[in-house]
Amino acid sequence: MPPKGKGGKGGKGAASGSADADKKEKAPKGGTSVKVRHILCEKHGKCMEAMEKLKAGVRFSEVASQYSEDKARQGGDLGWMTRGSMVGPFQEAAFALPVSSMDKPVYTDPPVKTKFGYHIIMVEGKK
Q: What's the pLDDT score for residue 79?
């Protein structure tokens, strides 16, 4: 019997490769990934304040720097995330969004609630 975790089938997208998804340069061929930015707030009120700033035309990265409460790199950039490496509601929202730019961001309105808090998500690329 081969040792567990070696050469078995069905590990795709599960715990096998998703732990360090943000460190991957290339998604596996045929895999789906999105380049994501987000603003994460624990409290709904703070998230709505951030949403108002976005609607007023403030750059997404600036709002993320001021309001986001996670350890995402400057400007809320999470980098390329593969399907299966994100929590359910976040992943559904990220893959449903169209690709947009910092100049004209398309983001989740209302914010998406997960176990981490409330996210305003924007997608900068898909592959």
A: 95
The per-residue pLDDT for 71 is 80
- How far apart CA 40 and CA 18 sit, in angstroms, is 21
Amino acid at 13: G
Task: Provide the sign of the torsion angle of the four alpha carbons 29, 17, 121, 114, taken in this order.
Answer: positive
DSSP string, 51-107: HHHHHTT--HHHHHHHH--S--BGGGEEEEEETTSS-HHHHHHHHHSPB--SSS--B
- Closest residue by Cα to residue 120 from 33, 58, 60: 60
Tokens of 50: 């951030």
Going from the C-alpha of 54 to that of each of 57, 85, 109, 116, the distances in angstroms are 5, 27, 11, 21
Cβ 95 vs Cβ 68: under 8 Å: no
Question: In degrees rounded to 5, what are phi and psi of residue 76?
Answer: 80, 10
